[in-house]
Design a protein that fits this description.
eleven-stranded mixed β-sheet; Immunoglobulin-like; six-stranded antiparallel β-sheet; alpha+beta; about 650 residues; globular; Jelly Rolls; glycosidase; hydrolase
Length: about 650
């Protein structure tokens, strides 16, 4: 009996011990973090229900009892910038300590790939990283995750800015932080929560979407269970393949796809290099064949010929005129020597079988890496390739970040709330440009959603889309990108918002312009205006000029349109060797736009075109690729693209799910 009693007692004690939950905090807290100065600082986490939790930091001690669900939160009193300090949280059975904690300014960096873009890939990024000795600039990188329900924690850790860590910092955030630190001389903390190619709706909560009549329909379609998600994914992929190619091939059919005589008239086309998820195969993991026909000149000697196309995501098997010439795995640039006699003058066929296990798929190198070269031969291979799907992996059925709305809000933003911060910098919109009119509602809705959940109208600064030739859009054909920029400008009606104009620093053929330094600096200037008004006086203070000249009013004087502007700073400036203003168009009542001559007279611009005798409307920078604009104020901030008309736009009828 005694043995039995001791066994029961031991089991009871072990059960009691495992029931004690260690006090813990979400991973937004960590060593090397930056806490927000001059504001109450929430510190929260989990423990046993009713457990006493003590938080100690910078001569403050706060005590609280965990609630019935084991959650607890304390509010540290506002503090000035400084550090390093130690944050200690003690519970009944354990203590958690975070070292090297600073007090300063905290900014959330969010959006899609242009905010995610790392410093090492920006202009002079590697050289910049070598000089990045800024120990009081810190970054928390939030690991990518999706969820249909709100989560309470993230994966990620804080890093101190150094030549070793800086290459992985968000480039825009890094340059923003560096400039802000120069202005304020305090530590800067960046919370990098980004995902390339994402819509604003995936960063918005279900509750917020339900406030909008259009977006409520999207929220109502969200799956309820994981099984429903998988079944929906299977059906999504089935419909995609049925529409594109009538289904998957048999093994015998696929064996013929390297054959140069194969008829590929029914194959789809996709530009390469690119991620195939954004070229027509969203969320697809599997096997895709790419084929390209080339014509070799008769005079080519066809000696020492090499096929090159950078790296492939994840691996390839490459054939030339039906013969296997090589294959490699992810991360290795492709360079295959073509056997003498395999190529011939005239028509030749390159076929590449690409296998992608997860994430992005396709040719991942640079356009200039894709080429066929020989002794007297150079044939560029970047551009359209025929493609066809050969196999689909089960991971394809899982949702991507845009498959359903709310997913990134739930997984990558909600767990950060209510971490004390000063504001948000945001670079996104490219993925919403197909329905820009809807962005007029979706974008402000998202901002208000975040503010409501943090409990204050914090500064929200964003980057207007840079110039990029998305689809040759302009005033005559219509431009979704111009309409998206207009929607961003309209969002400035919200309080405590600011916008960095970047039309002048885009790249016509690259949606990821590499000049992130000017983007960061312009955002920092807007931060000084919106968040720190009065903090910087003298030579670094530009007042409202950082907004950039903004259209104010138009009057018609005969065949001329006379334009006035706000936010001109010290005056308007034309950046052109000969003083020519570019980017202006004018139209009459027929709504046909003509390139206009524009003259700067003081802070007024006179616009006219010989073909328009009675001006009705003027547009400036109204095109996908609007990089020719050159109006600034003397503080060097570019003018905001605009139109004076309200004529029907090309995206007016396009809604979520229509793209």
């Amino acid at each position: 009996m005694k043995g039995f009693k001791w066994t029961v007692l031991l089991v009871s004690l072990l059960g009691l011990d495992t029931a004690w939950a260690d006090v813990r905090l979400p991973r937004v807290f960590g060593s090397h973090m930056v806490l927000q100065r001059r504001k109450p600082v929430p510190v929260w986490g989990w423990a046993d229900a009713g457990e006493k939790v003590t938080v100690t930091f910078n001569n403050q001690t706060k005590t609280v009892k965990a609630g019935k669900e084991g959650k607890w939160k304390v509010l540290l009193d506002p503090m000035e910038a400084g550090g390093p300090y130690q944050l200690t949280v003690k519970g009944k059975t354990n203590a958690v300590s975070f070292d090297d904690v600073l007090l300063g300014e905290v900014w959330v960096c969010s959006g899609q790939s242009n905010m995610e873009w790392p410093l090492q890939a920006a202009t002079n990024g590697k050289e910049e990283a070598k000089e990045a000795n800024y120990p009081t600039i810190r970054q928390l990188s939030v690991k990518k995750a999706v969820s249909l329900t709100p989560k309470d924690d993230i994966e990620g850790e804080w890093a101190v800015c150094s030549p070793k860590t800086a290459p992985g910092f968000t480039a825009v955030g890094y340059f923003f932080a560096r400039q802000l630190q120069k202005e304020l001389n305090v530590p800067i903390g960046l919370i990098n929560t980004t995902w390339g190619g994402t819509h604003s709706e995936t960063w918005t909560s279900r509750e917020a979407l339900n406030q909008n009549d259009e977006l409520r329909l999207v929220a109502n379609k969200l799956p309820a269970t994981d099984d429903e998600v998988i079944q929906s994914g299977k059906e999504r992929i089935r419909l995609l393949l049925e529409k594109q190619q009538g289904g998957l091939p048999t093994a015998a059919e696929e064996k013929k796809w390297a054959d140069p005589t194969l008829n590929t008239d029914q194959w789809k086309s996709m530009n390469q290099p690119s991620d195939w998820e954004w070229g027509g195969l969203p969320t697809l993991d599997g096997v895709v064949w790419f084929r390209r026909e080339i014509t070799i000149p008769e005079e080519a000697t066809l000696k020492n010929v090499t096929l090159q196309f950078g790296s492939v995501d994840d691996k390839d098997s490459t054939f030339v005129n039906g013969q296997f010439v090589g294959g490699a795995k992810w991360g290795q640039p492709r360079s295959y020597i073509i056997p003498d006699g395999l190529l011939k003058p005239g028509r030749n066929v390159i076929a590449v079988r690409v296998t992608d296990e997860s994430g992005a798929g396709g040719f991942a190198g640079k356009p200039e890496q894709m080429q066929l070269t020989g002794d007297n031969l150079t044939i560029p291979l970047a551009g359209p390739w025929k493609y066809r799907v050969a196999a689909v992996f089960p991971s394809s059925f899982k949702p991507g970040p845009n498959t359903y709305a709310t997913q990134l809000f739930n997984a990558m933003l909600n767990p950060l709330i209510p971490y004390a911060m000063e504001g948000v910098i945001w670079y996104q919109g490219e993925s919403n440009a197909g329905r820009s009119y809807q962005y007029r509602k979706a974008f402000p809705l998202m901002i208000q959603d975040w503010r409501q959940r943090w409990g204050n109208d914090f500064p929200f600064l964003f980057v207007q889309l840079a110039s990029y030739n998305a689809s040759n859009g302009n005033s005559q054909r219509g431009s979704g990108w111009a309409e998206l920029r207009e929607a961003q400008t309209m969002t400035l009606q919200l309080p405590n918002t600011g916008m960095a104009v970047t039309s002048d620093i885009g790249e016509s053929n690259d949606i990821h312009p590499k000049n992130k330094q000017d983007v960061g600096k312009r955002l920092a200037a807007e931060a000084m205006r919106v968040a720190y008004s009065g903090a910087a006086k003298g030579e670094n203070s530009v007042g409202d000029a950082s907004r950039g000249p903004m259209f104010d009013a138009m009057r018609v004087d005969g065949n001329r349109a006379v334009l006035t502007f706000r936010n001109v700073g010290s005056g308007l400036l034309v950046k052109d060797k000969y003083g020519y203003l570019r980017g202006f168009e004018v139209a009459g009542a027929d709504q046909k736009f003509y390139y206009a001559k524009a003259d700067l007279q003081g802070n007024t611009i006179i616009v006219h075109a010989d073909s328009v005798t009675a001006p009705v409307a003027v547009r400036y920078g109204w095109a996908d690729d609007n990089g020719d604009v050159n109006l600034y104020n003397k503080e060097s901030f570019p003018a905001v693209p605009f139109r004076t008309d309200t004529w029907k736009g090309v995206t007016e009828a396009t809604k979520f799910g229509d793209q």
